[in-house]
# Entry
Amino acid sequence: MNPRDTTGILWVLFGLYWIIRAFRNHRDVWKQSIAGRLLQFILWTLGFSLVYSHRLDDTFFAHQLISSDPWMIGVGTFLTAVGIGFAVWARLHLGKYWSSTVTLKENHQLIRTGPYGLSRHPIYSGIVLALVGTFLAIGELRSLIAVTVIFFAISLKIKDEEAMLSQHFGVVYQQYAREVKRLIPGVW
# Structure
């Protein structure tokens, strides 16, 4: 099985899990604008289309940047699986407060335990690790562009989430932000 198929299967399983779990949440009190949600959707779709569209197989975008030896493919696939696993753990830990959009839930609580004690945005931390793993496994220019596009989308969403959480939780969130790094534990 080629690395695009292997990582693609991992991403499809992740997406299916996300969709199934989306129906078990608290009621929304406030939600991100439609424009913000649309931009996120477009950027994520563009990123994954770059990687998995066969129409780009024989184009400049399919240029190999990293060796496609089995060791590198294995490391990349492993990191993809670990990143997805970390995002799923964070999603499970967040429970009914999760939403695919920047949302304030009814009786919203600030979760600071489990993976949220390591990173303020552990779902995104896991997704970024999985994206880097996907790039290492595939090694093509288009997968590097996809990581960049999706990381940009995540950065925009983090900015919106942090503004909303800071406004809602005030000093409690500001203290949490001082204690726990945004994406990479102990670094950033």
Observations:
- The mean pLDDT is 92.
